[in-house]
Design a protein that fits this description.
With 528 residues, this protein is of the alpha+beta class. The strands form six sheets. Strands 1, 16, 17, 18, 19, 20, 21, 22, 25, 26, 27 and 28 form a twelve-stranded mixed sheet that branches. A six-stranded mixed sheet has the order 5-15-14-8-12-11. It has two domains: 119 residues, Immunoglobulin-like, CATH 2.60.40; 254 residues, Spore Coat Polysaccharide Biosynthesis Protein SpsA, Chain A (Alpha-Beta Complex), CATH 3.90.550.10. The two termini are 43 Å apart.
Length: 528
């Protein structure tokens, strides 16, 4: 009897522990909430910028003379809409004529509200700059802990252009002669103005020496030192050596074009015009009945939104209707190839990806997705998919890569997320989300979908996007899913054919191994 009681107690204890574990795993995660709103200048940045201005504002009373042959090269505010005006026919035949088209006049001249268009463009551009900049872009100067003062970051030059190097200085006790040297690998040094009493050796070359008996004069001259990039490369950096007797410093000058903004004119509305901001994209194969159900459900809530359909059926059927674009692909081309095609035809700021067997409901509020994308640095946000059983899935994962050896790196995929989003209580930040997501069209196109993944694939896109896409997930935007419960004897021929393609024992496993091992250079992957 005592043995039975003991066994009952142990069984009760184990059951209790299991129940607690289940409650813990099902309970809400208490992760930190982080503000990922569009970046604003912080108080620390303002202090650093003031210190930089103070460091650069000395010696303004020391006189100088402009060196015209160098100063004209400085690429500040050089944008002019200017064409060749030579009316003579012979020069036009010998040399191609340069034409110029004033977009400011041509476009705004036909707009009923030109000031409103200019305002919207400036708002979009401000948002683009806030979204694309980081604290690493801030111009900083290392004040002279050693005698040398120099910029530590934030100095950039466009290929084959000239800039003044800001922040150079020498802080040392008076001596008979003060000397500094500058040496570069991808460009040359000169000065935009000369200061009396300062000697220059090597101006116009890759190495230049400046010397003076007056420290104030030398420091004033350093404020006019120019750097000209001479070896073309669209994205690199030059390492500059800055030295004086007994001391040497090194800093970099970034060489490259600035990012060309891609702005979207979505109209002068005081609210989110989803049809102007979002295009729905999907891929279909042998499921025209489910595709039509999707279209009908979309039209119930968003009558004018554009739907782009990629179709790789062997015998495609016409899919017609207002605001529908139907693109036919080679037969069986595949899942990710269809994603590429559909997204490539999107012209709106955002694209919403849905599977062809999804169904819009009253909870499929695209405005909520647009709102978080507009107000945060997120590039892509997923929603939730509700099955006919009532269960909703968000499929949130975190992805990390550990640096490995010569055999490759280690990929780790885990269920969960990183943190909550301030101001959006139902949203979190993750690295991968479910098949129902909205993203910035240009960013998704930049990543692309590997067309070799013809039948199965989803996480592969997010693995390729790791470090490039800022991903979120919001559980309060929900889309329905058509029932997957089909009795074997009631399947149509189309459904049987679909299953053969979708779940065939093909070379998918070998292909995934190849993609992860060779393309992504992984030697190991783990997941839960």
């Amino acid at each position: 009897m005592r043995a039975i009681a003991k066994k009952s107690f142990v069984l009760l204890l184990v059951s209790g522990l299991l129940l607690l574990a289940l409650i813990y795993s099902w309970g809400p995660e208490t992760k930190a909430s982080v503000n990922i709103g569009l970046r604003q200048s912080s108080s620390i940045e303002e202090i650093l910028q003031k210190k930089t201005r103070d460091a650069l504002s000395n010696y303004h009373k020391v006189p100088y003379r402009i060196k015209e042959d160098v100063a004209w090269q400085l690429a500040y505010n050089t944008c002019e809409c200017r064409s060749d005006k030579n009316p003579l026919p012979l020069p036009r035949m010998l040399f191609p004529r340069v034409w110029a088209h004033n977009l400011h006049v041509a476009f705004l001249g036909s707009e009923p509200d030109p000031e409103g268009v200019k305002r919207r463009r400036e708002e979009e551009y401000s948002s683009f700059k806030r979204r694309s900049s980081t604290p690493a872009d801030l111009f900083l100067v290392a004040e002279a802990n050693s005698p040398l003062q120099f910029p530590t970051q934030g100095v950039e030059v466009r290929p084959l252009k000239t800039i003044i190097i800001p922040g150079l200085g020498l802080k040392q006790k008076p001596r008979a002669r003060h000397v500094v040297n500058l040496t570069a690998a991808l460009g040359t040094f000169d000065v935009a103005a000369t200061v009396d009493g300062v000697s220059l050796v090597g101006a116009g070359g890759r190495s230049m020496e400046l010397s003076s008996g007056a420290l104030s004069g030398l420091n004033r001259q350093l404020q006019f030192v120019t750097y000209t990039n001479t070896l073309f490369h669209p994205r690199t950096a030059d390492t500059v050596q800055f030295a004086t007797e007994g001391h040497q410093a090194v800093f970099t000058i970034k060489v490259g074009y600035s990012s060309i903004p891609k702005l979207f004119n979505s109209g002068s509305y005081g609210y989110y015009n989803v049809s102007a901001l979002v295009t729905i994209a999907t891929k279909t194969f042998l499921r025209y009945d489910k595709l039509q159900d999707l279209i009908d459900s979309v039209r119930q809530y968003y009558p004018t939104i554009t739907i782009v359909i990629a179709d790789d059926n062997e015998h495609p059927k016409p899919v017609k209707g207002p605001h529908i674009e139907h693109y036919i692909m080679p037969f069986g081309k595949g899942w990710f190839a269809g994603r590429n095609l559909a997204v490539s035809q999107v012209t709106t700021k955002y694209v919403l990806w849905v599977d062809d067997d999804f169904i819009f409901t009253a909870s499929t509020k695209l405005e909520k997705m647009v709102d978080i994308l507009e107000k945060t640095t997120l590039d892509l946000v997923g929603g939730a998919v509700r099955e006919v059983t009532g269960y909703s899935a968000t499929y949130r994962h975190t992805i990390s890569v550990d640096e490995g050896d010569a055999d490759g790196d280690c990929l780790h995929i885990r269920q969960g997320f990183h943190h909550h989003v301030d101001g959006f209580p139902d949203c979190v930040v993750a690295d991968a989300v479910i098949n129902f997501f909205m993203g910035r069209t240009d960013k998704i196109l930049r990543i692309g979908f590997d067309p070799r993944l013809a039948r199965r694939g989803h996480l592969e896109f997010f693995i390729d996007a790791l470090g490039s896409l800022h991903v979120g997930s919001c559980s309060d935007v929900v889309i329905g899913h058509a029932s997957k419960i089909v009795l074997p004897w009631s399947k149509t021929e189309a459904e049987k054919t679909y299953d053969r393609f979708r779940y065939s024992a093909s070379n998918d496993g070998k292909l995934h191994n190849e993609l992860f091992y060779f393309k992504n250079r992984f030697r190991c992957m783990s997941s839960n």
